[in-house]
Amino acid sequence: MYGQLKNIEIFKSLSNEALERLAAVSKRVEHQKGTILIYADKTEPYFYILESGIARAYSDGESQQITFWFGQSGAVLFSFNSYINNSPGYENIELLENCSLIQIRLTDLFLLYEQHLEIANWGRKIAEHELIATERRLIDRAFKGAAERYQDFLDQSPELIKRVALKHIASYLGVTQVTLSRIRAAHK
Amino acid sequence: MYGQLKNIEIFKSLSNEALERLAAVSKRVEHQKGTILIYADKTEPYFYILESGIARAYSDGESQQITFWFGQSGAVLFSFNSYINNSPGYENIELLENCSLIQIRLTDLFLLYEQHLEIANWGRKIAEHELIATERRLIDRAFKGAAERYQDFLDQSPELIKRVALKHIASYLGVTQVTLSRIRAAHK
DNA sequence: GACAGCATTTTACAAATGTTAAAAAATGAT
DNA sequence: ATCATTTTTTAACATTTGTAAAATGCTGTC
After folding, report:
1. Which CATH number fits domain B2-114: 3.30.420.40, 2.60.120.10, 2.60.40.420, 2.40.160.50?
2. Which of A60, A110, A142, B3 has its CA 20 to 30 A from that of B117?
3. Chain D: nucleotides under 7 Å from a protein CB?
4. Cα-atom radius of gyration of chain A, to the nearest Å?
5. Which of B128, B143, B174 sits opposite A127 (nearest CB)?
6. In whole angstroms, how far apart are CA A148 and each of A153, A158, A184?
7. Are the CB atoms for B88 and B82 separated by under 8 Å?
8. pLDDT digits (tens, 9 = 90+) for B66-125
9. Which residue ranges does UniProt annotate as crossing the membrane (chains A, B) (predicted)?
10. 3-class DSSP state for residue B38?
11. Has residue B186 got a pLDDT over 90?
């Protein structure tokens, strides 16, 4: 595993020694498009890093399904509530393409956090990185209209537009699919 | 300082030894109501923990000011971008009452993260805690109407309703003050 | 290539929220 | 207490977005 982790962006800041410790508890897994990797109502025992493919996190409402996260190659992928509170959460994670993932058991990861300073700080930075991205989105919702959020999405994630169904992008942007269609129509 | 930190919730999980290391770089400061503790366009060199009083974080837009965070006693208070990326951010933090705060210089805190396993994991948990709260809010925006978000706020932060201007709560909930007034009127 | 099953767009109408301005209520200072 | 200032509510109207349903477009399979 060591040689494989080395090439993944998120591991690049780590020393060889830390990387070896992580490699020892990592396993590569492959799953098909359409797989629900994580279920909202179960405590998920694994932490994943996406090597290839794309995924989305969503919550089920009464009538709709809301996508609130997309992950591409290099993304970390875990159930927030399982990871942080060791309890079931509110997110499902679905693979939108065939995916290759690095899988680490949470109990192994937590043990490393308690043993290894460098890995503990690596884990801290993962949480901080997700935090700032999430806060950024919350603020954008307040300051930017739906059309501008769509344009930003186009600029920042051109890959995703091609590969993800628009209905998922609509809910990610916080509008209905009808509104997104209107925005796209006005755009041309 | 050691004896003072001991009584603050966020420090309670720490060993005496870790607490002493933190106490050695902590300082208590007091500031008056109305003080802007953190400015959006400056890299903020300190990290704070609120001992008493309340504060809000807000961003300035062209015509409005959007409050996106409230902190009460026990809250950690820092500029996300300064803390995480060492660069100016988008948040101002204003004290809404006279406040007593624990102040720690970021350079001191980062040094402890690199030296002390327990403190590094403590920092990780701080980020994770903020992360899950922020994600929760983003999802609530999608699934709940403004009236329900107001009711949740009443239930979860009854203190804040009494002590914070409604215009700030309106923008925190993602509506205009007019809409919040309508919700409150319908409520009775 | 025709068909079935989805995804996307369009249309018409409804509901929610925003905008502006004025009135009422609350707050603070003298 | 009174006055000035600020906050909150109310009103009227405009705009945005949502809902439901039909029309169109796309994809994969036989």
Report:
1. 2.60.120.10
2. B3
3. 7-12, 16-21
4. 18
5. B128
6. 9, 15, 11
7. yes
8. 999 999 999 999 988 888 888 888 889 999 999 999 999 999 999 999 999 999 999 999
9. none
10. strand
11. no
Token pair for residue A158? 């051109």
Please indicate if any CB of chain B lies within 8 Å of the CB of A139.
yes
Q: A105 Cβ partners below 8 Å, 6+ apart?
A: A25, A45, A46, A47
CB distance A124–B129 less than 8 Å?
A: no
pLDDT at A28: 94
The first and second tokens of residue A152, run together, are 């930003």
Q: What are the residues facing B91 on neighbouring strands?
A: none
Residue with tokens 């660069």: B87
Nearest to B72 by CA among B13, B156, B136, B183: B156
Q: For residue B34, give the H/E element and its range.
A: none
Does B184 contact strand D, using a CB cutoff of 7 Å?
A: yes
Nearest in space to A116 (alpha carbons), one of A14, A2, A186:
A14
Per CATH, which fold does A2-143 belong to? Jelly Rolls (2.60.120)
- Is the four-CA dihedral B156, B161, B167, B168 of positive or negative sign? negative
A136: nearest CA in chain B? B90
3-state secondary structure of A63: coil
Q: Is any Cβ of chain B less than 8 angstroms from the Cβ of A142?
A: yes
Residue B85, token pair as written in the block: 């990326």
In which region does residue A176 sit, left (phi positive, over 0), alpha (psi from -120 to 50) or beta (all else)? beta
A30 beta partners: A100
DSSP 8-state code for residue B169 = H
Tokens of B73: 């006693």
| Residue A145 CB neighbours (<10 A) | 11
Interface test with A, best of B112, B134, B148, B171 (most A CBs within 10 A): B134
Answer yes or no: are the C-beta atoms of B171 and A142 closer than 8 Å: yes
| CA gap B184, B105 in Å, rounded | 42
